[in-house]
Design goal:
Blueprint (H helix, E strand, L loop, with lengths): L13 H11 L3 H10 L4 H7 L9 H14 L8 H11 L11 H18 L13 E2 L2 H37 L4 H30 L20 E2 L1 H11 L3 H21 L3 H14 L5 H9 L6 H9 L9 H29 L6 H14 L2 H9 L6 H25 L19 H23 L3
Parallel strand pairs: 1-2
């Protein structure tokens, strides 16, 4: 490849110049030169990406991005082929992803069999019925990627909207460069979709080496009722706790199975949760006024300045009152799921697992610190799960169990209108009394109506 005229790209890796050529075609040389003349150093822009030309992956990444610029979706939608490939590669960064051995599969089946026997004594919801699966990290990626696609697409749409707005603003402020800016805008959209796909895939690849099953985030990432366990992650977790691996397998199987029972036996719940996530994510918007103000203080020729702006929330979502209300509903629903699972598994396992206290403590600590699934949701969907609400939900479900029994507790899931509200979690011990008072009031009204109607 020849160097661009005027030395505009003399400090750039040839792969990056190839990317610029894929973006702007025959006008790449003049674009690089115009950057230099306007005081924007292309080499500094490259440095702002954080990529190192010396890294072994650099050439491959640049080649991929160049190809996806030519063939990416014109509307900026996520490149799911790239997300899939990036996830599979990222899952291998900590070593190989061995095939699940037959002995591990048998151990997983035994753990779920025992867990389900004990859960039968703690909840009215029967076992989901589907055979549990022992998965490798690659298996987990293949099984859950469709659900992640549903969760993250609205976020990519918001980023595309923000980038388009920035390009339009630049056109208005620099009429002489309008044609060039419009061309850049058209070519930027495929790049946005590819970069988001790369980010998403890398995050899910990392997550695949840390999750224990389908339901670590409280969201069903597979078909309702499906259960799974990743032996490699479970064994690593057990080794860190210095506890018998069999107990750890049963404990995690019980949590996974409890989730599955709830999702399977409460038909509206899966759509309710996914609908809440989609509603929240679809309303994400970039505060464009804030973005414009922050961009005014960013020196595009200084990589450190750009990285600091991004770290400081350059593209942070704008939370309106409607957005906050949607977030509260979603947090409450997820907290109620996690709290119910916590109470049911504690009731089922307390007589049977000697180390239950230590296992539960580690789960609570993992939740408080934000588990890997929570970090992915926070990064890619903008969803921050608050552990405090899950603890309050556990207190609420335990109070109902102690005073009304498992049957009354589980019956609350029969309709969304019966579920505790956000405000109920502020006073978890008082929910049962309020529920009983509402039932009594409804019964009194029904009796008055029956008396007015008289005998048929």
């Amino acid at each position: 490849m020849t160097e661009p005229p005027g030395g505009a790209g003399r400090d750039l890796p040839p792969e990056f110049i190839e990317l610029i050529r894929a973006w702007f075609g025959p006008r790449a040389d003049s674009v690089l030169e115009s950057f230099r003349e306007s005081g924007v150093d292309p080499a500094a822009l490259f440095g702002a990406t954080g990529l190192s030309a010396a890294s072994p992956e650099f050439g491959q990444v640049m080649k991929q991005l160049s190809g996806f610029l030519r063939s990416g979706a014109p509307d900026g939608s996520i490149n799911w082929d790239l997300a899939h490939d990036a996830a599979r590669k990222a899952s291998l960064t900590k070593g190989g992803d061995p095939v699940v051995a037959a002995s591990q599969g048998s151990q997983v089946l035994d753990a779920f069999r025992i867990a389900d026997l004990w859960l039968d004594q703690a909840t009215e919801f029967t076992a989901a019925g589907a055979a549990p699966l022992a998965l490798s990290a690659a298996d987990w990626i293949e099984a859950t990627l469709p659900r992640w696609r549903r969760l993250t697409t609205p976020v990519a749409n918001s980023l595309t909207k923000a980038m388009t707005w920035l390009m339009e603003q630049h056109s208005r402020e620099h009429p002489g460069a309008a044609e060039l800016t419009q061309e850049a805008s058209r070519n930027a959209l495929p790049l946005i979709g590819s970069l988001f796909g790369l980010q998403l895939g890398s995050a899910l690849g990392q997550l695949s080496r840390e999750v224990f099953g389908y339901t670590d985030a409280g969201l069903p990432l597979a078909d309702p009722g499906a259960t799974a366990q990743l032996p490699q992650a479970v064994e690593a977790f057990a080794a860190g706790l210095e506890l018998p691996p069999a107990e750890v397998r049963i404990f995690l199987a019980a949590r996974e199975s409890a989730h599955a029972r709830l999702f399977k036996r409460v038909p509206w719940l899966v759509d309710h949760l996914h609908g809440a996530v989609e509603s929240y994510a679809s309303e994400i918007s970039i505060d464009l006024n804030r973005l414009e103000a922050m961009m005014a203080d960013v020196d595009l020729a200084d990589p450190a300045s750009l990285r600091q702006a991004i770290a400081g929330g350059l593209f942070a979502p704008m939370l309106t009152e409607r957005q906050r209300s949607s977030l509260r509903r979603l947090e409450t629903a997820l907290a109620l799921v996690e709290g119910w699972v916590d109470v049911v598994t504690l009731q089922a396992l307390r007589p049977n697992l000697p180390d239950l206290g230590s296992l539960r403590e580690m789960t609570l600590r993992r939740r408080a610190e934000g588990g890997p699934a929570e970090h992915v949701l926070a990064t890619l969907v903008g969803l921050e799960l608050r552990p405090r609400r899950a603890r309050q939900a556990s207190q609420l479900w335990q109070s109902v169990t102690d005073r009304g029994g498992a049957a009354e507790r589980d019956a609350i899931w029969s309709h969304p209108d019966l579920l505790p509200a956000h405000e109920d979690l502020d006073e978890p011990e008082a929910f049962y009394d309020r529920r009983r008072a509402r039932i009594a009031a409804d019964a009194a009204i029904d009796a008055e109506i029956a008396a007015l109607l008289g005998p048929w």
